[in-house]
């Protein structure tokens, strides 16, 4: 509130003094929300590109399986002893944590 009081002391205010708080909020939003999301998305894409056969992955649907084949836009995973699923690479949300 102190910042806003400093800008509007004279009562009139120029257009710059009206836009400055909006620009500051936009900058804060970018650095606190958009930039971390961009980094996280990039790390996920790098992880998916680095997947190898026998890596265990988790999908967005909660399926956990071992990578058996890597195709251009999809993966064949083995989720049970004889159960093979073809999933899109975009469905992978991470590697299974080692216990």
Spell out the blueprint of helices and strands.
Blueprint: H1 2-7, H2 15-49, E1 56-59, E2 64-70, E3 74-78, E4 84-88, E5 92-95
Briefly characterize the structure:
With about 100 residues, this protein is an alpha+beta fold. It has helices at about 1-5, 15-50; strands spanning about 55-60, 65-70, 75-80, 85-90, 90-95.
Keywords:
99 residues, SH3 type barrels, 2 domains, five-stranded antiparallel β-sheet, 2 helices, 5 strands
Descriptive overview:
This protein has 99 residues and is of the alpha+beta class. The chain has two domains: 2-47, no CATH class; 52-95, SH3 type barrels, CATH 2.30.30. Helix content is 41%, strand content 25%. The protein has helices at residues 2-7, 15-49, and strands spanning 56-59, 64-70, 74-78, 84-88, 92-95. It has a five-stranded antiparallel beta sheet with strand order 4-3-2-1-5, with helices on one face.
